[in-house]
Amino acid sequence: MIASKIYAVDQTQVRIAKSKPPILLIHATGRTTTSGWTDGQLSPYVYLFPPEDGVQEYDFIATPPGPGQIVQQVLTPISATAEIPDMDILNYWGEGNPLKGIRVHGISNNKTVDIVPKEETTRIDTSSSPQSVVSHVTPTDNQDVPGFGDDIKPLFRDRDVSVMQAIAGFNLHNYDDVKSNADRIFERLQTDMPCDGLWPQNDIDKFERWKDEGMPQ
Ligand code: HEM
Q1: Are residues 164 and 96 located together in one domain of the fold?
Q2: What is the pLDDT of residues 58-85, one digit of tens each?
Q3: What Å distances lie between residue 162 and 94, 97, 212, CA to CA?
Q4: Are 199 and 190 in contact (CB under 8 A)?
Q5: N or C: which end of the chain has fewer CB within 10 A?
Q6: Same domain, 113 and 186
Q7: Are residues 38 and 93 in the same domain?
């Protein structure tokens, strides 16, 4: 299935991760007209010349349900994230030409966030609550005590590792780092991490069991 633009964008959020060089994280939520859409993505516009308003635009796209797939005709929430690494906000469009905003387009509307460069981590739009998109729940087949190398480490994707290393300074693939931050990590796994959709409950439970059972290597 070819990805298509989603129906409407509800919110665009931008955060600037305090790293060197900074990373710009974009998080958008929106709605599709039926259930069954997957893999929400932000597809950047490519410009031959810098746009006059200094705004980088994205299409919010996702993979529609397949031909014979049974779907419900209901507005269904979807989210997507994008990252701009090596952010130089002040010279994004070339020397002296700053990035002034991010605009995300759906079919029926678009949402723009103004960028106000700051030294510190900035959350320009704070009105949203944590988003969670749980795609499926896998059955538990192993109730033994999980180990870090075999069971916990593979739950963290490479992008989780690189983003969290840059933002919070811990390495999610490193046993000692995860052990010493286990409580913080567990708290966020239950609320809003990873930023693009919570783990299936089964994996969150697995992390909790590992933490409670003395965090074996
Ligand atoms: C399983 C994967 C992840 C875990 C366990 C995790 C965990 C955490 C924790 C514990 C913090 C707080 C750090 C502190 O207090 O210093 C945090 C902050 C943050 N994380 Fe993640 N993270 C994950 C993936 C991601 C991803 C994929 C993104 C986005 C691309 C992301 C974006 C952020 C941002 C922007 C912050 C700082 C702002 C805030 O505290 O909300 N994280 N994360």
Answers
A1: no
A2: 999 999 999 888 988 888 999 999 988 8
A3: 26, 28, 26
A4: no
A5: C
A6: no
A7: yes
The answer, as to whether pTM is greater than 0.70, is no
Q: 117 with 154, same domain? A: no
**Mutate-to-test residue for ligand 1 from 41, 188, 196, highest number of ligand atoms within 8 A of CB:** 188
Cite the beta strand spans of the chain per DSSP E.
Answer: 4-5, 8-17, 23-32, 38-44, 55-63, 76-84, 101-105, 110-114, 122-123
Whether residue 30 is found in the same domain as residue 92:
yes
Find the domain containing 91 and state its range: 4-123
**Which residues of the chain register pLDDT less than 70?**
18-19, 116-143
Q: What are phi and psi of 112, to 5 degrees?
A: -115, 140
Number of domains in the chain: 2
Are 108 and 171 contained in the same domain? Answer: no
Q: Determine the distance separating the centroid of ligand 1 and the alpha carbon of 36, expressed in angstroms.
A: 27
Closest residue by Cα to atom 34, ligand 1, is: 167
Q: Tell which one of 41, 156, 167 to mutate to probe ligand 1, the residue whose CB is within 8 A of the most ligand atoms.
A: 167
Q: Are 167 and 123 in contact (CB under 8 A)?
A: no
